[in-house]
Design goal:
Layout: H1 3-16, E1 26-28, E2 35-38, E3 43-47, H2 60-73, H3 88-100, E4 105-109, H4 112-126, E5 131-135, H5 140-149, E6 152-156, H6 161-168, E7 177-182, H7 194-203, E8 207-211, H8 226-229, E9 238-242, E10 252-256, H9 258-267, H10 269-272, H11 279-294, H12 297-315, E11 328-331, H13 335-349, E12 351-352, E13 355-356, E14 367-370, H14 378-395
Parallel strand pairs: 3-12, 5-6, 5-7, 7-8, 8-9
Antiparallel strand pairs: 1-2, 2-3, 4-10, 9-10, 11-14, 13-14
Helix pairs in contact: 2-11, 3-11, 4-5, 12-14, 13-14
Length: 404
């Protein structure tokens, strides 16, 4: 039996469907973001799909904190949190995160994916009769956490509060319930109707769990996300987010009450049985969070450049989903043309915008996703919009309806 052939056929199937993912070999340049070098071709390119939303991964204070800590404490943590991997850098980081979100305590994981998966799947160990109400557009890490929990789940239509209330109202008011949702949805840019969801949670005695991965650092007076922006963090039971996007580092976390965090810390396999983050990464993240708590410059510049990008796309006849967030999805609706558009933008215009195909988005909703940053200049923005228009004309792309 040729086992290797099974794996080849699995990949061939993805290729035939236009879903095969190729990776660029990139080097970002410190002090020159959003430029990078594509080592596949040795060309200098401009990144238009980075999750380093504020360029904090290049900030001198963040880099200095990481380098200084590496020289003082070494490269790795040396163990799991339970044995020898709990260090002063992570303890300081968790205190900073708890303060950011106005919570009693925070808990750091190795990634945002792990923090969702581990936390949600652990809920069953503590509340075995819990019912989970989950937005239909929730991230794969949330879906996997729900699956692994084995708990009863109810999916409500994306951002549809009438559908949520209709479904949650059918359950006994005294049965444990939790509503899980994102604040800014990564593929559509949609923003959650947070007040309405919290009102429903209060009415039906449900816990709330918000994924602020694509919002922390960029929204709110202190960069605490949509909950911070709407002054509603106290109404959210568990806040989950990442250190790897706007904060420019790596890792994930939750922030909540002391009792909830302590229970997750004590029961979550994804936290217990893995090496903790290196102290250098923890210090870099803390430096970034502290900076963005007091500096509004990066947030203001981000949203200013996002608005300019939307104006430039409109001037060039490019339709997009305007969800009022920093994420700009451009629906193409065909996996092959979406991939070809991405390739032509890279090859002819030195612009890197990764195509987004199924299963990340539904079939027929294939898209490019533009993420402007404060470092993208006005001329870069105009070139990006003109280049997309040129590529669409070359490929004969007639855009689909711009509904995410």
């Amino acid at each position: 039996m040729n086992y290797d052939q099974f794996f080849k056929e699995a990949v061939d199937k993805i290729k035939a469907e236009g879903r095969y993912r190729s990776f660029l070999n990139l080097s970002r340049e410190v002090g020159n973001f959003p430029f990078a070098t594509n080592h596949n071709t040795n060309q200098k390119i401009i990144l238009w799909c980075s999750n380093d939303y504020l360029g904090m991964g290049q900030h001198k204070d963040v880099i200095e904190a990481m380098v200084k800590t590496t020289k003082e404490m070494g490269t790795g943590s040396g163990g799991t949190r339970n044995i020898s991997g709990n260090n002063s850098a992570i303890v300081e980081l968790e205190a900073e995160l708890a303060s950011l979100h106005h919570k009693e305590r925070a808990l750091v994981f190795t990634s945002g994916y792990v923090s969702n998966d581990a936390t949600i799947s652990t809920l069953a160990k503590i509340l075995p009769d819990l019912v989970i109400f989950s937005d239909s557009d929730n991230h794969a890490s949330i879906i996997e956490g729900i699956r692994r929990s084995g708990l009863e789940k109810v999916i409500f239509k994306h951002n549809d509060m009438a559908d949520l209330e209709e479904k949650i109202s059918k359950y006994d008011i005294n049965r444990p319930k939790i509503i899980i949702f994102e604040s800014v949805y990564s593929m559509s840019g949609d923003i959650v109707p947070l007040k309405e969801i919290c009102d429903i949670a209060d009415k039906y005695r449900a816990l709330t769990y918000i994924d602020e991965v694509h919002a922390v650092g960029m929204y709110g007076k202190n960069g605490g996300g949509i909950g911070d922006q709407m002054n509603m963090m106290e109404r959210i039971t568990i806040i989950q987010a990442t250190l790897g996007k706007a904060f420019g580092a790596m890792g994930g976390y939750i922030a909540s009450s002391n009792n909830i965090v302590d229970a997750i810390r004590s029961y979550a396999s994804g936290f217990i049985f893995t090496t903790s983050l290196p102290p250098s990464l923890a210090k870099a993240a803390t430096s970034s969070i502290k900076h963005l708590k007091v500096s509004t410059k990066e947030r203001e510049m981000l949203h200013e450049q996002v608005n300019k990008a939307k104006e430039a796309l409109t001037r060039n006849g490019i339709k997009f989903v305007d969800a009022k967030s920093h994420i700009i999805p451009i629906i193409i609706g065909d996996p092959n043309k979406c991939r070809q558009a991405s390739q032509l933008l890279l090859e002819k215009h030195n612009i890197f915008v990764q195509h987004i195909n199924y299963p990340t988005v539904p079939r027929g909703k294939e898209r490019l996703r533009i993420t402007p940053t404060p470092s993208h200049t006005d001329s870069m923005i105009n070139q990006m919009a003109e280049s997309i228009a040129s590529v669409f004309a070359e490929l004969g792309i007639v855009q689909a309806e711009q509904a995410a």
